[in-house]
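Reply to dn_fold:

You asked what the input looked like. This is it:
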Amino acid sequence: MMKTLVEFISEKQADFPYASGEFTRLLNDIGIAAKIVNREINKAGLADINGYFGQQNIQGEDQKKLDVFANDHFIAAMRHGGMVCAIASEENEGIFVYENAFSQKGKYVVAMDPLDGSSNIEVNVPIGTIFSIYRRISDSGPGTIGDLLQPGNRQVAAGYIIYGTSTMMVYTTGNGVNGFTLDPSVGLFILSHPEMKIPDGGKIYSINEANYIYFHEGVKQYIKYCQQDDPSTLRPYTTRYIGSLVADFHRNLILGGIYIYPGTQKNPNGKLRLLYECNPIAFLAEQAGGKASTGFERILDIMPSELHQRAPFFVGSKSMVEKAEELMRVYSE
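and this is what came back:
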C-alpha cells in the first residue's frame, strides 16, 4: 500500500525529539510550496517565468524570476502554519521575520536555498530546493539572527526537493533518510525510496575541473587519484558534473560518489553557503552513511558567524571523502 509524506511523518513523530503535530504541519507546508514551485518549473518554457528578475541577491548574483517566485512561495507557505518564526534565505540579505503574533510563537527557524541551480533553468536541467530546520533558541517574540547562527549538528531536520524527470522530496530528522516522489495524478508525495543509504564506495567524482589551476594541491592530487587506472579500487572513476548541487548530490546518494566544491586561490572558502547548502546536505549525507567535510574538518561542527558564510565542501561516499581528506592533509604539510 502506498504511503504518503504526511502519513509517513505522522507515523514517525515518536522518533523525532520534539514530536508534535506542529512539526508535521511544517514539513507538509514545505511540501505544498514545493508543489507550487514544481508547477511553475514544469511550464517554464510556456509562461513568462524564465529570464532575469532585474535585481541581484546578497551574493551579487543576478536573480532569476523563478528564484524570486520560489523564495516568495516558500516564505508564504510557512507563514500559514505558524510553526516558523524566522527564515534565512540565500535570496535575502537578512533574516525574514513574520510580523504576525501567531508566527512569532513558532518553535522553529528555517534556512533555505529556494532554487538551487537556477542558472540551469533555461536548459531544462534538474534543479532543486534545499532546506534546513532548527529549533529556535530565543525565548519568544520575533526570531533572531542568533536562532539561525547555529552549527549544523543542531539541525532537527533537513532535506531537498529535486525537480527533474520526476519530482522528489528527500529529508531526514536524524533517523535515516527517506525519499518521496510526487505523483502528479493525485498531487501527493509518495514514499518511493525508504531508508536511503549512500554506497560506501563509488565510481563518480563531481567537480568543476575548469577551475583546476586554482585548486589546492590536495584537490589536484585527488583528481589525479580518481583518474588513475586501478581496477582493484574501481578506478579510473567517472566524472559527472551537472552544476546543480541537489542534482549532483542526489545522483551520488543513490549510486555512490563524491561531490567537491573546494576553495580556490580566488575564493578560499569556495562558493557554497554553509547554512543553506552545506549544512543540510551534510546532515543528509551523514544520516545516509556518508561523510561531509571542508577537506579538514566536519561541516556540521562549524559554528557560523554570518548568514551568508561560505565553506569548501567535500560530500558523498565515506571512503571517497576520507581519501580526499587524506590528500588535503598530506599536501598542506
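The longest strand covers residues 108-116.
Hope that clears it up.
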